[in-house]
DNA sequence: ACTAGCCCCTGGGAGC
DNA sequence: TGCTCCCAGGGGCTAG
């Protein structure tokens, strides 16, 4: 599932090929076959029409990551004047892949990559949104489970995007310190540390895989209460968090599930998991010999070693 | 201003 | 082998 390293990898890939492109046209079937028709989402037909009117003819000027969100900044020119600057905000949720390549419309209802290769991976064939670009490539959103959200805001009114507005500091924010991390997590009081790490309004970018890995490596039981973890422990948590995220970025993200980068390729971080998805296996920590357990914390699966991960309560 | 819990979705794995 | 059932889980939303 796309978390910070995966979204980062996607964004870096997209930057290479779509910046400067004009969006010639867009297509979507999100609004045709989904029940989830909130007002402000392209899954709603009226909103999609509004969205289409804003993006067609616009130029992609830059792309950035905001937590797990992808921000595509666009502008339209008219007679040499910049009329509007808008930002498309995409969240890939569980199974979204934002990719770019040459695609063609097939069977009047699906899109498929033209060239053989990673883009033709079966996981990449659930295409529900297509931006046709001026270089004849397509920017597509494949999303098997259709959880992804796509919205548009005036760039200078991005603070009206509730989630973006309430996002905590990014886990890789250069200004973030161990002390600040402690203060933020400590505020979560009786919330299990596992849930606190997943809370995007506390720290942005961490999801289920990385929270499990961080807690395993720092020897903290996922049900430990946020406020009970001693301040001095946060130097280690901070360092481990950064190292794990950076290591995953280095390996192109985690494709244990179905993540694919902007070119349809898998990442390799799944080969570095110590604990996530290893229920019943022996704890890989040296001389530990514990058996990895899986529990559900606030509706999220949490993998940990009951032998060496300490419960602070 | 909080948090807990439901809901969105569908391929794939488990179980029989 | 083929069927059914249920799980994966981020975050929006609502009720308390």
Helix and strand topology:
Blueprint: H1 4-18, E1 23-28, H2 45-55, E2 59-66, E3 69-78, E4 81-91, E5 96-101, E6 103-106, E7 110-113, E8 127-133, E9 138-143, E10 149-154, H3 162-165, H4 178-186, H5 193-198, H6 208-217, H7 233-250, E11 293-297, E12 300-304
Helix pairs in contact: 1-7, 4-7, 6-7
The structure holds a DNA duplex (16 and 16 nucleotides).
Word description of this protein:
This protein has about 325 residues and is α+β, with helices and mostly antiparallel strands. It has 2 domains: about 160 residues, Alpha-Beta Barrel (N-terminal domain of MutM-like DNA repair proteins), CATH 3.20.190; about 130 residues, Helicase, Ruva Protein, domain 3 (Orthogonal Bundle). It is about 25% helix and about 25% strand. It contains 7 helices and 12 strands. A hairpin with a 2-residue loop joins strand 3 and strand 4. Helix 1 runs parallel beside helix 7. The longest helix has 18 residues. It is globular, with a radius of gyration of 21 Å. The model has no long low-confidence stretch (mean pLDDT about 90). The protein binds a DNA duplex (16 and 16 nucleotides) through loops.
Secondary structure tally: strands: 12
* CATH fold-level label of the largest domain: N-terminal domain of MutM-like DNA repair proteins
Beta fraction: 15-25%
| Count of alpha/pi helices | 7
Distance between the termini: 30 Å
SS-derived structural category: alpha+beta
The rounded Rg comes to 21 Å
Which CATH architecture of the largest domain would you pick? Alpha-Beta Barrel
Oligomeric nature of the chains: single chain
- Indicate the percent of residues in helices: 10-25%
Strand order of the largest sheet: 1-8-9-5
Question: What's the overall average pLDDT, rounded?
Answer: 92
CATH level-1 class of the largest domain: Alpha Beta
Give the topology string: H per helix, E per strand. Answer: HEHEEEEEEEEEHHHHHEE
Write out the CATH superfamily name of the largest domain: MutM-like, N-terminal
| Low-pLDDT ranges | none
Summed up, the domain count is: 2
Report on the biggest sheet: 4 strands, antiparallel
User: Tell me, what's the shape?
Assistant: globular
């Amino acid at each position: 599932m796309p978390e910070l390293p995966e979204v980062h990898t996607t964004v870096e890939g997209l930057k290479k090929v779509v910046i400067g492109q004009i969006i010639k046209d867009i297509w979507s079937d999100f609004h045709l076959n989904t029940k989830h028709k909130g007002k402000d989402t392209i899954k709603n037909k009226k909103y999609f029409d509004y969205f289409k009117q804003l993006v067609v003819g616009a130029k992609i000027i830059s792309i950035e990551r905001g937590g797990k969100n992808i921000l595509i900044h666009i502008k339209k020119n008219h007679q040499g004047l910049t009329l509007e600057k808008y930002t498309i905000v995409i969240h890939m949720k569980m199974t979204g892949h934002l990719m770019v390549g040459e695609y063609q419309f097939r069977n009047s209802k699906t899109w498929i990559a033209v060239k053989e290769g990673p883009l033709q991976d079966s996981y990449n064939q659930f295409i529900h949104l297509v931006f046709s670009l001026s270089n004849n490539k397509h920017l597509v959103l494949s999303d098997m489970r259709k959880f992804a959200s796509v919205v548009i805001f005036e760039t200078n009114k991005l603070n009206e995007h509730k989630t973006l507005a309430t996002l905590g500091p990014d886990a890789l924010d250069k200004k973030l310190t161990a002390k600040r991390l402690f203060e933020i997590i400590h505020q979560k009081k009786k919330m299990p540390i596992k849930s606190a790490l997943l809370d995007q309004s506390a720290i942005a970018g961490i999801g289920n895989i990385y929270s499990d890995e961080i807690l395993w490596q720092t020897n903290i039981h996922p049900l430990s209460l946020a406020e009970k973890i001693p301040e001095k422990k946060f130097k280690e948590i901070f360092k481990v968090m950064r190292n794990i995220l950076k290591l995953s970025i280095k390996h192109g993200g985690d494709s244990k599930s179905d993540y694919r980068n902007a070119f349809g390729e898998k990442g390799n971080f799944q080969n570095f998991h110590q604990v996530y998805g290893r229920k019943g296996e022996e704890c890989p920590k040296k001389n530990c010999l514990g058996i990895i357990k899986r529990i559900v914390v606030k509706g999220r699966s949490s993998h940990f070693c009951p032998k060496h991960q300490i419960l602070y309560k």
